[in-house]
Write a structure and sequence with these properties.
By secondary structure, this protein is an all-alpha fold. The chain contains 7 helices and no strands.
Length: about 150
């Protein structure tokens, strides 16, 4: 019987053996630098978004306006997921004929999708804003706001 750890070990081996790592070292370094630059830009947007909202919408509630922008982002993100995200069910099809419970495969699919690129990008936009603005303005409701937004992302 395959265990949960074995499934993740197979996923790691598949990732390491992919054609992405077969490219030259310079291209891999360049892609890593560009992804780091993208992550820093997204975090900076999240950190300075209160200033942009204050300048563009004077007198508006900053957290409410940011939440509106997050809903617009999530709509665009949902459309992007349909086009760009691979179907994780296809990764499990080789295991369907093996003696492994379907619930374990389902749990593996759910856990694997947590660390998808599309789930990590909103964290870079939402967490800096939460730390800087929402936690000070919303007081006790801040964690409820954050939990609601993160559940919408997932």
């Amino acid at each position: 019987m395959l265990s949960f750890n074995t499934l993740f070990k197979h996923q790691w081996l598949e990732f390491r053996r992919s054609t992405f790592w077969q490219k030259s070292l310079a291209i891999n370094i360049l892609i890593s630098i560009l992804l780091t630059y993208l992550a820093l830009n997204l975090a900076a947007i999240g950190w300075f978004m209160d200033i942009v909202i204050r300048e563009q919408f004077p007198g508006a509630d900053i957290v409410l306006k940011y939440t509106e922008f997050v809903f617009y982002y999530l709509t665009i993100d949902l459309l992007g997921r349909f086009v760009l995200q691979d179907v994780p069910v296809l990764k499990v099809s080789p295991y369907l004929h093996l003696p492994i419970r379907r619930t374990k495969l389902f749990d593996y699919l759910l856990f694997r999708s947590l660390f998808n690129f599309f789930n990590l990008v909103p964290l870079l936009l939402i967490l800096p804003f939460f730390v800087k603005v929402a936690s000070t303005q919303l007081d006790g409701l801040a964690f409820i706001w954050l939990t609601g937004i993160l559940l919408l992302v997932l």
